[in-house]
Design brief:
The complex is a heterodimer.
Chain A: H1 12-18, H2 22-50, E1 68-73, H3 77-85, H4 91-98, H5 109-115, E2 121-127, H6 131-141, E3 149-151, H7 154-159, E4 165-168, H8 175-184, E5 188-191, H9 199-211, E6 216-218, H10 226-236, E7 243-251, H11 274-278, H12 288-292, H13 303-320, E8 327-333, E9 346-353, E10 370-377, E11 386-390, E12 393-397, E13 401-405, H14 413-417, E14 428-430, H15 443-450, E15 455-458, E16 461-464, H16 465-479, H17 487-506, E17 510-513, E18 518-520, H18 524-529
Parallel strand pairs in A: 1-2, 1-4, 2-3, 4-5, 5-6, 7-10
Antiparallel strand pairs in A: 7-11, 8-9, 8-17, 9-10, 11-12, 12-13, 13-14, 15-16, 17-18
Chain B: H1 12-38, H2 45-49, H3 56-64, H4 66-89, H5 93-110, H6 132-145, H7 154-167, H8 176-184
Helix pairs in contact in B: 1-4, 1-6, 4-5, 5-6
The chains are: A alpha/beta, B mainly alpha.
C-alpha cells in the first residue's frame, strides 16, 4: 500500500506524532500567560490603591574642595567604626578581618571598605583618655605623610585652629559638655547618641546648637536606611490607617550585647587619664571595669533608654514625627546579668501620645491617640520585630519591610472580599537587598543589621549606613542644606529617653509640658538624687 | 545482543504513561524557567546561601561572587527552559534528560535532605534523604532509558530527516500495520 510519504520519507503520520506535543505547549503558554496576567492585575490593583513609591535616597552633594580636617574625640569601639567609615581603618582591623576564620564565606567587609568612596577628609587629631586607643587612632589616621595629632584633653583639640570638625564618640556623660564646647569653638559636630546624659545639659546643648553656625548632626545613621525612606511614603499615603500601637524591641543574649566588653590588659592609672574619663561623674579611684564597661553604670551611661531605645524611638520618629510623648512609664530590672551593674537588662517603656493622629479610613473623630511600646531583654535574642499597628494594616519594619492588611480593615475590606487582597500575604513588601547577599558576623551585629543600623543599600549594593550619615553631615558642611538628625531630632530623642530613665529610676509617671518644654512635676532635688538634673 | 533504546517496543499504556511523565516533567521545568525569566528581580543567590551539607561551601561561594552568580542565574533560567522545551516537544530528548538530571543534581546536592540539617527556607513536605528533586531526577533517568520521543515527539521527525539525509535513502518501507506492531509490542 502506498503511504503519504514525501521525498525524505516523512509520512503525515510522522508529522502528526512528531508534533503531538505542540497543543500541550500551546496550553502551557496560554495558561502561564493567563496566570502571569492574573497575578499582575492583582498586584497592580493593590499597588494602585496603595500608591507607594520605593523611595530614591535623598541626594547628598559632592565631596570636592579642600579636605576637611576632622578631630576624633573618643576612640573606643564606636569611635573606631566612625573613623573607618570616614575612610581610615586601623591597621589592626584590616589584619583582623583578613584573618577572621569565623567570618562567613561570603564576607565582603574588607572589599566594601576599600571600595568605599573617598570622603575627602583628613584625620587631623585623635583624643582619648587611654593612650593605647589614642595610638591606634593616630596609626589609622596616618596617610600620605600626614600625621594625626594625639590629644589627651579635648580642650586642647578644640583650641587647635586646624581642626574644623569633630566626631564625638565618648561615653554618654561627656557628650553634651564636649559638644557644647566644640560648637562654641565654631567646630562642626557629629555627636553619637544618646545626645546627652542629663536634662539640664540637654536644654543647654539645644540652645547652643540652635544659635551656632556650625553643622550639628546626631549619630542616628538608620535615617539613611532605604527601607525607612519607603516606609515614610507608606505613612504619608496613610496605607496603615490610624496607628494606635507601635511595638519596638531589643533582644540580645551575648556578653557584647550586654556591654560586658573586654578589659584591656594595658589599662592602668599611668596609661589612662582617669580624671579625664570621670569628668562630671562622682570621683572614685581608677576602676578598669567602669572605664571599659561604662554603659552598665548610671554615672557615665544612659542604660537601655539612651543606648538602644533611642535607636527605636528615632526610627519611628523619622517616620511619624510624633515628637516627645505626653507621658512615659517604665519598669524593669536586672534579671539576666547580675554582675553589679546598675542599669536594667530587662526594660519596658510605654510612651503615650494621646493627641497623635495622621489620618483615618473611619468616621471623623472615632480615632485619636497612640502608644509607643519598647520592650527589651538582654537575656534572649529572639527577634520580635518592629510593628506599626494601624486599623487598616500592620507594617513590619526592618532592613526589609512588609505591610499586611488587617482582615477587618475599613479601607481594604472590599478588596479582601473580592479576593484581591489576602490578609496573610503582604500587600506591600520591599527588600532593598533583593539583588545582593548579606554576610553579618555575630548575633549583636545581626541585631543591628536587622534594624538598619549597620548598613543599607544603594542601587542594590550594600553600604555602611554610618558612612552615609557622615557623608550627609560632610555634604551639608561643604554644600549647605539640612542634616537629617539635627538638634531638633536629637532633642526629642534625648528628652524621650531621659523621661524613660527617670520613670524607671523613680518609679513614677513622667509628664512633658509642651509649652514650657520642660518635664513636669519633679523637683530639681529629685532629679539631682539620681544624677539626671 | 544489546537492544538499542530506540528499538524498544511499548504497550499503548506504557507508551502513554511514559509520554505523560515526560510532558509533566517538561511542563514543570519550563514553568520554573519561565517564572524566573519573567521576574527580573529573581536570583539563585538566597537559595545558594541557604545551602547545607558536604558541598555547601562551593554553593555559598557561587552566591558570594556577583559575576559567578550572574552566570549561574543565566544558565539556570535557560537550562530550565531548554530542558522543559526539549522534554515537552520531544526534541533532543535524551540530551534534555541529561541536562535536567545535572540541574536537579545540583539542587539536590546544595540542599540534601540529611539528618540534622535544617533549612531557612521552609519545605512543603517531610523528607529523609529522598526529596522531590531526587525523585524527579530518577524519573528523568527512567525517561532516559525508556525514550519515547522517537515515537511521539520531534525526534521522530528529526530521526527520519537525518536518517534520510545521511544514508541518502528512506528507511525501509513499512506498512501501517507493521508500524503499529512495532509501536505497541513490548520488547521481548
Amino acid at each position: 500500500m502506498q503511504d503519504n510519504r514525501d521525498k525524505k520519507g516523512i509520512a503525515r503520520r510522522d508529522i502528526l506524532k512528531g508534533l503531538a506535543a505542540l497543543p500541550v505547549l500551546g496550553v502551557f503558554f496560554a495558561s502561564a500567560g493567563f496566570k502571569s496576567a492574573h497575578d499582575k492585575r492583582i498586584r497592580n490593583s493593590i499597588l494602585q490603591e496603595l500608591d507607594v513609591k520605593a523611595a530614591a535616597p535623598p541626594p547628598s552633594g559632592p565631596m570636592s574642595g579642600p579636605p576637611i580636617n576632622i578631630g576624633i574625640i573618643g576612640f573606643g569601639g564606636r569611635g573606631e567604626h566612625l573613623t573607618r567609615a570616614l575612610g581610615y581603618a586601623t591597621p589592626q582591623w584590616i589584619e583582623l578581618i583578613k584573618n577572621d576564620t569565623l567570618a562567613p564565606p561570603h564576607d565582603t567587609r574588607l572589599k566594601d571598605y576599600f571600595e568605599q568612596e573617598n570622603l575627602n577628609v583628613r584625620i587631623a587629631g585623635i583624643c582619648d583618655v587611654f593612650d593605647v586607643r589614642t595610638e591606634m587612632g593616630v596609626a589609622a589616621g596616618a596617610r600620605n605623610g600626614h600625621q594625626a595629632k594625639a590629644y589627651r584633653d579635648y580642650r586642647a583639640m578644640l583650641d587647635d585652629p586646624d581642626i574644623e570638625a569633630v566626631v564625638i564618640a565618648t561615653p554618654d556623660h561627656w557628650h553634651a559638655p564636649i559638644a557644647i564646647a566644640a560648637l562654641q569653638a565654631g567646630k562642626h559636630v557629629y555627636l553619637e547618641k544618646c545626645m546627652t546624659h542629663k536634662l539640664g545639659e540637654t536644654y543647654e546643648l539645644y540652645e547652643t546648637a540652635k544659635n551656632a553656625q556650625a553643622i550639628f548632626q546626631v549619630g542616628h545613621q538608620h535615617r539613611q536606611t532605604q527601607s525607612f525612606l519607603t516606609a515614610q511614603d507608606i505613612i504619608r499615603k496613610n496605607v496603615l490607617g490610624h496607628i494606635s500601637l507601635i511595638q519596638t524591641n531589643t533582644n540580645r543574649n551575648d556578653d557584647v550585647g550586654a556591654w560586658q566588653y573586654d578589659i584591656h590588659p594595658d589599662a592602668n592609672p599611668r596609661t589612662v587619664d582617669w580624671q579625664g574619663f570621670l569628668g562630671n561623674a562622682p570621683s572614685i579611684p581608677f576602676d578598669a571595669e567602669q572605664l571599659f564597661r561604662w554603659r552598665k553604670y548610671w554615672a557615665y551611661g544612659t542604660g537601655l533608654s539612651g543606648d538602644l531605645l533611642t535607636h527605636d524611638y528615632d526610627r519611628i520618629n523619622c517616620l511619624l514625627n510624633m515628637g516627645i510623648p505626653s507621658v512615659v512609664t517604665a519598669s524593669g530590672g536586672i534579671y539576666t546579668h547580675r554582675d553589679n551593674r546598675e542599669v536594667p537588662d530587662v526594660f519596658q517603656v510605654v510612651m503615650e501620645y494621646p493627641d497623635f493622629f495622621m489620618g483615618s479610613s473611619q468616621a471623623e473623630g472615632k480615632e485619636k491617640g497612640m502608644a509607643f511600646l519598647y520592650s527589651a531583654s538582654l537575656g534572649n535574642q529572639y527577634d520580635r520585630g518592629t510593628l506599626l499597628m494601624g486599623h487598616d494594616a500592620t507594617m513590619q519594619l526592618g532592613q526589609a519591610l512588609a505591610v499586611y492588611a488587617d482582615p477587618v480593615s475599613t479601607r481594604y475590606l472590599p478588596m479582601i472580599e473580592e479576593g484581591i487582597i489576602q490578609p496573610d500575604v503582604p500587600i506591600y513588601a520591599y527588600d532593598p537587598s533583593a539583588e545582593g547577599i548579606d554576610a553579618v558576623t555575630g548575633a549583636t551585629a545581626k541585631y543591628f543589621a536587622n534594624k538598619g543600623l549597620m548598613y543599607t543599600y544603594r542601587d542594590g549594593k550594600r553600604v555602611d549606613s554610618t558612612y552615609l550619615h557622615l557623608r550627609e553631615w560632610l555634604s551639608v558642611i561643604r554644600n549647605g542644606g539640612k542634616v537629617s538628625a539635627g538638634i531638633e531630632e536629637g532633642f526629642e530623642e534625648a528628652i524621650s529617653a531621659h523621661m524613660a530613665t527617670i520613670a524607671y529610676r523613680t518609679g513614677k509617671r513622667v509628664e512633658w509640658d509642651p509649652v514650657a518644654r520642660r518635664i513636669k512635676g519633679f523637683e530639681d532635688g529629685a532629679l539631682e538624687a539620681i544624677g539626671m538634673a | 545482543m544489546k537492544t538499542p533504546a530506540s528499538a524498544l517496543r511499548y504497550s499503548p499504556s506504557q507508551l502513554n504513561l511514559l509520554v505523560l511523565l515526560r510532558l509533566a516533567i517538561g511542563w514543570h521545568f519550563l514553568y520554573e524557567g519561565i517564572v524566573k525569566l519573567w521576574n527580573p528581580g529573581w536570583s539563585a543567590g538566597s537559595f545558594l546561601v541557604d545551602s547545607k551539607g558536604l558541598f555547601s561551601g562551593l554553593f555559598q561561594a557561587m552566591a558570594a561572587n556577583p559575576g559567578v552568580l550572574e552566570v549561574i542565574d543565566f544558565l539556570n533560567v535557560w537550562g530550565l527552559i531548554l530542558v522543559g522545551l526539549g522534554l515537552m516537544l520531544g526534541a533532543l530528548t535524551r540530551w534534555a534528560a541529561i541536562g535536567g538530571i545535572v540541574l536537579l543534581g545540583f539542587y539536590y546536592l546544595s540542599h540534601p535532605a540529611l539528618i540534622g540539617i535544617q533549612y531557612a527556607m521552609p519545605t512543603e513536605g517531610s523528607y529523609l534523604f529522598i526529596n522531590k528533586n531526587l525523585i524527579e531526577l530518577l524519573s528523568l533517568a527512567v525517561l532516559y532509558v525508556f525514550p519515547t520521543s522517537h515515537i511521539i515527539g520531534l525526534d521522530r521527525l528529526l530521526n527520519r530527516w537525518f536518517t534520510r539525509t545521511d544514508s541518502g535513502s528512506a528507511p525501509a518501507e513499512q506498512s501501517p500495520a507493521q508500524r503499529r506492531s512495532q509501536e505497541t509490542n513490548i520488547a521481548s
